[in-house]
Amino acid sequence: STLDLEKNPPEPTTLGAVFKYDLKTGEYLGKYADEILTPSGLLFDSSTDRLMVSTISSMGLFDSELVLEYKASTGEAISAIGGGTGPAGRTGMAIGPNGDLFVSSFSNAPFGVGSVLQFDGSTLESKGTFAQILSAEPEDFFGGASGLVFHAQDASDKFYLDVVGLFSSNLARFEVATTDEGLQVTSGEILIREELDFPSAIQSLGDGTMLVTNLGNDNPDTGELRPGSVAQFNVATGEFIKTFISAGGDGNIAQPTALLLLPPGLDCNGDGVIDLQDLECGCATNIDDLLAELDLIRGDLDGNEAVDFNDFLALSANYGSDGSYM
Questions:
Q1: Is 49 within 8 Å of 34 (Cβ atoms)?
Q2: Residue 78, class by beta-carbon neighbours within 10 Å (0-12 exposed, 13-18 middle, 19+ buried)?
Q3: What does the buried/exposed string (b/e) look like for 267-280 if buried means 16 or more CB atoms within 10 Å of the residue's CB?
Q4: Of 40, 145, 160, 178, which has the highest C-beta tally within 10 A?
């Protein structure tokens, strides 16, 4: 929804905050979480009812080590994790294929090495640094780790972890395998060096391609002015496909940062997941519509990223006597 901030202004705040809006009307609903020093990223995990907020700075530049945990359904502050756990400047977050939380870190300064940290998905205890590109070669420098995404490979136990480096304007790819000790990085390299201009966020489209937002440069004191954009790449090769969204245009896009993909019209409750709960919101009328729109949820009807007995119960409860879905 387009938000009219003159009609629905956020309340003044001296610290950062998470604001809440009605997804359908754009109405400002107040602060969801307050008194956050430099909030950077948001991650909602429907399976645990968690909202995670990463923070990028504390007393200096890119020096915060904290990720804040909230109960998503109420906004109640639960905990702050990550203190003393390694490279600072917390930014992007993702849930890994094993259910753990992965957080990218700027690493204190523009010339620090970008990192990805790992936290236990249940306890949120630190498991240390998961991935880094350590190289003495200038062309392999990776700094300002920001958005990150896991891609499944053909083999069920192997994945790609792609992370964009905002300061180094490149993309690092890590090969990840499932072992007896858990997820392990088997290799890492700079996959994409061109067509990235201060990249911030990354998102898989699920069709073998991915999108990356580019901030560009709007500061004449730091060099040539360059417009922001959203670029599309081939997941398997890293090959540039096209500029997916250009600067200006109907949306008057300037410096795109975050990126979220929602299939049109079916994520009725706005939780980022298309599941059985959307039937209750009215715009998704039956399970057939949901399955036709997004194949990935064919068995996962309750949206907990697992196909289990609860999905069978949900299916049974919505199965008509004439053999049709209700």
A1: no
A2: middle
A3: bbbebebbbbbbbe
A4: 145
Instruction: Say which amino acid occupies 274.
Output: I
CA angle 122, 128, 131 (to 5 degrees): 110
CA distances from 11 to 6, 31, 196 (A): 12, 8, 36
Residues 210/253, Cβ–Cβ less than 8 Å: no
Question: What one-letter code names the amino acid at 260?
Answer: L
Section 180-194 average pLDDT: 92
Token pair 């003495």 in the structure block, residue = 136
pLDDT bin (cut points 50, 70, 90) of residue 295 is very low
Least-confidence region, from 210-214, 241-245, 269-273: 269-273
CB within 8 Å of 267: residues ≥ 6 apart: 273, 274, 278
